[in-house]
Known about the structure:
Number of strands: 7
Shape: globular
Order of helices and strands: EHEHEHEHHEHEHHE
Helix content: 25-40%
Radius of gyration: 16 Å
Strand order of the largest sheet: 2-1-3-4-5-6-7
Largest sheet: 7 strands, parallel
Low-confidence stretches: none
Amino acid sequence: TRDPPAIATIIFFHGNGGNISNVGWVGERLSGKGFNVLLLDYRGYGRSEGRVDGEHGLYADADAAYLYVTKTLGVRPEGVVLFGQSLGTAVAADLASRKKCAAIILESGFSSASDLATSVLPVLPRRLHFLARNRFESARKLSRVNYPVLITHGDPDGTIPTEHAYRLFAAANEPKKLLMFPGAGHNVFGSQGNRYLEVMADFIRKALGEGSLNQHVHSR
């Protein structure tokens, strides 16, 4: 028998401290739930050539991934889900503000680089220093996204304060959903495992179908 068609194709945008070698498990877990998954390394990350030359280079890499999925693989935009973690949320938000997709998931994101610098500048991790040289105006861009949005965040998050999740949620259009996970830290998926996977899978299924997602929930 043939395998059933994938529920959706997820493009995963990892954080500043990651690359394909240490986020492969994300693809495996999502694939096990019936999704096709594309993992990519931005320029200068992992084995990708070049170097990070600012946010616009990351956005160009996201465009290339989207083009590969929709044109080369022939996936309809309505079947594409953008999933960003940490720095990857800025990449996903920018792409979603310019391209068609089915839904967008933002885990442990920040509203803008200036907001992040204001809130945590004295203790900004070295791996996030380059944010200060770029704008990454995710909240503003998210206000132009008209697809279902899921925002998740650990509470507390020692890297990106939880207040950024509320700012992103306020900026997002309906339908939208905000989930806070007490004790999850910065890596919500890694902390919550199957429980979190079920949340995302359910969100995507509803986004592809119908139903109200306009919710603000504190997960227990």
